[in-house]
Write a structure and sequence with these properties.
Layout: H1 3-20, E1 24-26, E2 29-31, H2 36-45, H3 47-66, H4 72-92, H5 99-128, H6 136-171
Antiparallel strand pairs: 1-2
Length: 172
């Protein structure tokens, strides 16, 4: 792993942690760009970087927000899986994804993360004995929010990847 790549991954982890503290709530819709750095790492460098950035992002976010707990690893899984999933897809397609392909894998990762986060919330509620109102309606709204975020990420991520690749080739 090159120094540039390692530093890029570290910056992406830090960016995730900062973005994770800023969520826009519009009624039932939560808009957060926190997943953006994980997507960038995975689409730019592949599954290993996606996994590392996802795992470290999830860990640091949990540590800074809730500290270490019995469920820390469980809450890390969604971000780790997102990085791994998108990175494997990008690697399989040799990092040359059309907007449609990018949209597909981003949507699939968003839906998977929503499913994993919902499961983590449910299990966390069972372990720590707090009420979790996971009705069919709230679960549906979580998935609608996920689809909206997938559209936003599909629009902004390819341009960010293009800019980072251009900057990397100029620096080399």
């Amino acid at each position: 792993m090159s120094t540039r790549r390692l530093v890029t991954d570290a910056i992406l982890v830090a960016l995730y942690v900062v973005l994770n503290f800023y969520t826009i709530r519009l009624g039932w819709l939560n808009i957060s760009l926190a997943a953006f750095p994980i997507l960038v790492a995975a689409l730019l460098y592949g599954w290993a970087d996606g996994l590392i950035v996802g795992a470290m992002s999830g860990f640091l976010s949990q540590l800074l927000t809730y500290g270490l707990s019995l469920t820390t690893v469980m809450w890390m899984l969604p971000t780790l899986v997102r990085g791994l999933m998108v990175g494997l897809y990008a690697t399989k397609h040799r990092f040359d994804l059309s907007r449609k392909q990018t949209g597909f894998i981003v949507l699939l990762s968003c839906l998977t993360v929503t499913l994993l986060n919902t499961a983590a919330l449910y299990v966390d509620g069972l372990i720590y004995h707090y009420p979790v109102a996971l009705t069919l309606g709230t679960i549906a709204l979580r998935f609608v929010s996920s689809i909206v975020m997938a559209v936003i990420f599909t629009l902004i991520t390819p341009k960010a990847i293009q800019l980072l690749r251009a900057a990397g080739s100029k620096a080399a």
